[in-house]
Amino acid sequence: MTTNTWQSPSNIALVKYWGKKGNQLPANSSISFSLNNALTTTTIEAQYKESNVNEISISFYFENEKNEIFEAKIFTYLEKVAIDFTWLYQYHLTIYSSNTFPHSSGIASSASAFSALALCLCSLHEEITSNQLLNFYETASYWARIGSGSACRSVYGGYNLWGKTPSIAKSSEEYAVNVDECIHPNFKSLNDTILIVEKGKKAVSSSQGHALLKEHPFAQLRYDIANQNTEKLLSILYSGDFDSFTRLVESEALMLHALMMTSPTSFILVKPNTLAIIEKIWDFRNQTQTELLFTLDAGANVHLISSDKHNEQVQQFVKNELIGYCQNGLYFCNTIGNGPFKINNA
């Protein structure tokens, strides 16, 4: 039996990926950074099969309990991966997955889950076939993308770009690339406090949201603006201009939700407490000149991003003024993470 374990982070997009084309390709480029505490750990035990070598077979356990719903999704995913990893038909996979954050806590777990899974599969491929992958992380990013688009950005730490972007020669729609090499020190040690306004499953899934954008009257304009914002944000990240960073990132967050609200089938994922938190952030920033801002994912929860030099002041602000807007007072503190790592199996 061959066993591999990887731990991989979730990420938060600053320029949003919203809209698909082709085989899980992005309609626009996006930039994110990986988180240090929102992690998924995945272990795969690969047991050689003597029979049924023409079928993929798996057992999936989430938080040490059999999960048939997740198992079905992973089975469908592995059928796609087997195009390149044909050895999958010869092994039964027992997969164990767990998070450092509660499931359905409103922190997107698909990015961390599928990146960890793809990294495990790439490691198993090298061990089972005795062939080293030419570009290990690019391959992992490619296959993570097939499971969940944003997962392709989680196979690296720091800041990551997905989508073809003129100023980054190595950029691609098929996998993400790391862009840490030129990031200004102002943006190297940001904090991300995730304020949980609403736990649980969203009323509209991200996949449904992506599909709705295809019929949106502003779709092509959105793609153009997002691609322009990617170039602008790269320039900002290199220059260290925090004010420009704040304006662009908050605009991206609000535009994402404006697109949802103006889709042919419209939906609203922000909640009254989401808006209350945003107004509190704006008021606090105006009064104190503290370097902090918000972004939103495709849900009600708020990511409060702040510079490390103001972290103590910001955490006090969270406890004094924002925690009351969080469901059960729930929030999670993160910094920019170093990315996934392989765990040695005993």
Describe this structure in words.
This protein is 36% helix and 24% strand. With 346 residues, the chain is an alpha+beta fold. It has two domains: 2-181, Ribosomal Protein S5, domain 2 (2-Layer Sandwich), CATH 3.30.230.10; 186-335, Alpha-Beta Plaits (2-Layer Sandwich). The strands form three sheets. Strands 1, 4, 5, 6, 7, 8, 9 and 14 form an eight-stranded mixed β-sheet that branches. Helix 2 (110-129) packs across helix 3 (136-147) and helix 5 (219-239) packs antiparallel against helix 6. It is globular, with a radius of gyration of 20 Å.
Question: Could you give a short description of this structure?
Answer:
With 346 residues, the chain is α+β, with helices and mostly antiparallel strands.
Give structural attributes.
single chain, 346 residues, alpha+beta, Ribosomal Protein S5, domain 2, Alpha-Beta Plaits, 8-stranded mixed β-sheet, 4-stranded antiparallel β-sheet, 14 strands, 24% strand, globular
- Quantity of strands, as a count: 14
| DSSP helical segment count | 8
The CATH class assignment of the largest domain is Alpha Beta
Radius of gyration: 20 Å
Q: Tell me what portion of residues adopts beta-strand conformation.
A: 15-25%
Query: Runs with pLDDT <50, length 5+?
Result: none
Q: Span from first to last CA?
A: 13 Å
CATH architecture of the largest domain: 2-Layer Sandwich
Count the domains.
2
- In CATH, the topology of the largest domain is named Ribosomal Protein S5, domain 2
Q: Give the biggest beta sheet.
A: 8 strands, mixed
- Summarize the helix and strand pattern as letters: EEEEEEHEHHEEEHHHHEEHEE
Apparent shape: globular
- What percent of residues adopt helix (DSSP H or I)? 25-40%
